[in-house]
User: What shape does this take?
Amino acid sequence: MIQLDNVTKEFDGKRKVVALDAVTLHIPKGEMVSMIGPSGSGKSTLLNLIGGLDKPSRGEIRIDGQQMSAVSDDDLTRMRRDKIGFIFQFFNLLPTLSCLENVALPLHLRGWSRKKAEERGRELLDLVQLGKRVEHLPEELSGGERQRVAIARALSVYPPILLADEPTGNLDSSTGADILKLINDLHQRLEATILIVTHDMGVAESCQRTIRLRDGKVVEDIRR
Assistant: This one.
């Protein structure tokens, strides 16, 4: 499902920084993988490259067999829209929209009718146990509830790939455990390929596989 071949990412400034250094990696369909490493090890850079939010300096990335460097910008946008869901540490919800409107927004952008988008939004909010909060604004929710809304939004098109950047990092330990359980339940139910960047070893060890990065290189790859 996700294939990286000798992927390098460099940033030019006063001096060149190598964020990723010739990384080769294969994540099969349906696998739930965690990625750990110290700050600056390249975790978020790698997630952004896989998500098509940035491009590698060298090397190739394939998503579901499709070579990302070979597609047009429009096709890359469609790939992100149709195949990849993102969950961010700080939720990134629009504050003036209700829970339902936040979840339905990606579907409106795909041209879905209002009725159909709202039906899917309610279905997903039920899935993340927020069916009674559909009209609430983000500021009226707890941190854990906001993350549940963000997860529902990421799942709006039932993408085959889910990328999560520190999904429990901004939550207390109890709420973080609830969110992790939810992600695990969704993984089993939807059979999505899930990649989680985390500093939390409890989160990392709950996954089928843990990849450790250091200085832009894969230094450990553990399967459970």
In short: The chain has seven helices and ten strands. Residues 79 and 155 are 14 Å apart (CA to CA). Helices lie at 43-50, 73-83, 99-109, 114-127, 143-154, 173-190, 201-205. The longest helix spans residues 173-190.
